[in-house]
């Protein structure tokens, strides 16, 4: 049996899709929704439609603080940390929980399924390359949702005050201790426009810079992106790779600029995919 934690900040337009994908799953023991700093109806919706869930209404708008508060209600392991704007495939909880019983997998994740049907051409080209990178294929994180075993959580006591919680978790584990689990998927709507894509990817880059500066990674990894992208640049993937590199350059410059004032960073969020979900 597993515990699921869903942090939520103003997610009224999408959270029902997420919770609907969770509540009837085999293997679910406890569902905790950690509303934090909400100024919309997220908490009201959860309490009205999901009485089986533990609904926290935390005043402070902070994802990592919400995760720490929610962890006080854990009843079983592994623990799934699932973003409110995503959906899990049927039986994903059972499939991942069973796979983690091998004792070797301490950090897991469902396979990411990125929906770019409503995204602009440039956003689609970016994800076409991004999804081929080893960081995504090999596993875990980059989608903000992950699963930790009880033994795995012994690597840290609380989530530190960082922007990139999934990056922090991932870098506590060696490659052989983490993996995506075949047969379980997480569905994510990509940003519809380039501006929103740059915002969320800048946030991830900024978070990684923060982790490195604070020396919070115990298992840092080398990412051979340059070699892989160079190979693709001279293939039929040349145009998508050039688009990817251009967008990545903008993200790097923007993150470097924002890092100067990282202590006062204002969380940047993609609203375009949330608007889409609400209208569906």
From TrEMBL:
Pfam families according to UniProt: Glycos_transf_2
Source taxon at top rank: Bacteria
GO CC annotation: plasma membrane
EC number: 2.4.-.-
SUPFAM superfamilies: Nucleotide-diphospho-sugar transferases
UniProtKB keywords: Cell membrane, Glycosyltransferase, Membrane, Transferase
One Gene Ontology MF term: glycosyltransferase activity
Nucleotidyltransferase is among the record's keywords: no
Broadest EC class assigned to this enzyme: transferase
Keyword Transferase among record annotations: yes
Glycosyltransferase 2-like domain residues: 3-109
Subcellular localization: Cell membrane
Main location: membrane
The protein's name: Glycosyltransferase
Species lineage: Bacteria, Pseudomonadati, Pseudomonadota, Gammaproteobacteria, Thiotrichales
């Amino acid at each position: 049996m597993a515990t699921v934690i869903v942090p939520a900040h103003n997610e009224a337009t999408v959270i029902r899709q997420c919770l609907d994908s969770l509540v009837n799953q085999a293997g679910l023991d406890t569902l905790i929704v950690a509303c934090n700093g909400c100024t919309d109806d997220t908490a009201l919706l959860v309490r009205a439609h999901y009485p089986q869930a533990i609904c926290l209404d935390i005043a402070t708008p902070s994802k990592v603080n919400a995760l720490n508060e929610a962890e006080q209600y854990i009843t079983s392991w592994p623990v799934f940390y699932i973003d409110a704007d995503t959906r899990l495939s049927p039986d994903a909880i059972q499939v991942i929980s069973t796979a983690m019983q091998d004792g070797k997998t301490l950090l897991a994740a469902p396979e990411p399924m990125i929906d770019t049907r409503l995204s602009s051409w440039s956003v689609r080209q970016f994800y076409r390359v991004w999804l081929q990178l080893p960081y995504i294929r090999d596993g875990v994180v980059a989608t903000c949702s992950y699963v930790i075993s009880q033994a795995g959580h012994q690597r840290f006591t609380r989530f530190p005050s960082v922007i990139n919680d999934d990056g922090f978790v991932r870098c506590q584990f060696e490659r052989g201790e983490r993996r995506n689990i075949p047969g379980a998927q997480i569905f994510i709507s990509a940003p519809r426009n380039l501006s929103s894509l740059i915002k969320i990817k800048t946030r991830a880059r900024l978070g990684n810079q923060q982790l490195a500066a604070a020396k919070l990674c115990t298992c840092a990894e080398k990412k051979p992106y340059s070699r892989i992208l160079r190979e693709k640049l001279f293939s039929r993937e040349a145009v998508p790779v050039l688009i990817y590199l251009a967008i990545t350059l903008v993200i790097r410059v923007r993150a470097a600029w924002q890092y100067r004032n990282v202590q006062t960073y204002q969380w940047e969020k993609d609203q375009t995919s949330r608007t889409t979900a609400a209208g569906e």
